[in-house]
């Protein structure tokens, strides 16, 4: 519970208060990132279901997206923009890392951010016109799988930036593989629960394949360009995985 609260405090704007804090907890709390994703996805799903009682599907979808962005403070969106600004062009590693630290947003980052928001809103709007169980499942799974993909990249790569100047220094240290296994365990419980409720198994399997594909592509991209992961790279991984999973849920099969 303590590690889950640390993860919740790190990834969201929820007012979590801890009586004390050990920096080592930040390294181990990543095992519960998928569970935090379920919380964020659950809030988005609740807003979507409530909004559909009053407004059309596309309005409800935008409101659900606003709710999740507000809950996380645009944490992952910021990483997406910074990553594409840094890696969208052909620049050396040192220059790319310097661009990531720059608070200004460039054309690559702006395009990635706008297109990501548009695509996610469109996909959730499509889901909102279908049985609501599928829409709720898609939001829960996309947020949980997306954060699991980020943990997978973190576990499989060294830190690619300057560890001494990392914003969350404990996360720049080696993250044990057991944290990924525990995160996958949370995802397995979610999938089993949704399948029991009647969500189509092949859809869940396709979502898992989509998440794995993004994680592998991002791992290769970050390894080749930066020699490892950065916090912004993990944020980009989360965002791209969200889109991939939502695409899997909306695919006509």
TrEMBL record:
* Signal peptide from the UniProt entry: none
Q: Which gene encodes it?
A: cobS
* UniProt enzyme class: transferase
Question: Could you tell me the Gene Ontology terms of the biological process aspect for this record?
Answer: cobalamin biosynthetic process
* Chief place of localization: membrane
Q: What is this protein called?
A: Adenosylcobinamide-GDP ribazoletransferase
* Alphabetized UniProt keyword annotations: Cell membrane, Cobalamin biosynthesis, Magnesium, Membrane, Transferase, Transmembrane, Transmembrane helix
Its family?
Answer: Belongs to the CobS family.
Q: Looking at the UniProt record for this protein, which Gene Ontology cellular component terms does it annotate, in alphabetical order? A: plasma membrane
Which source organism? Roseateles puraquae
For this chain, one GO molecular function annotation is: cobalamin 5'-phosphate synthase activity
**Keyword Ribosomal protein: yes or no?**
no
UniProt superkingdom = Bacteria
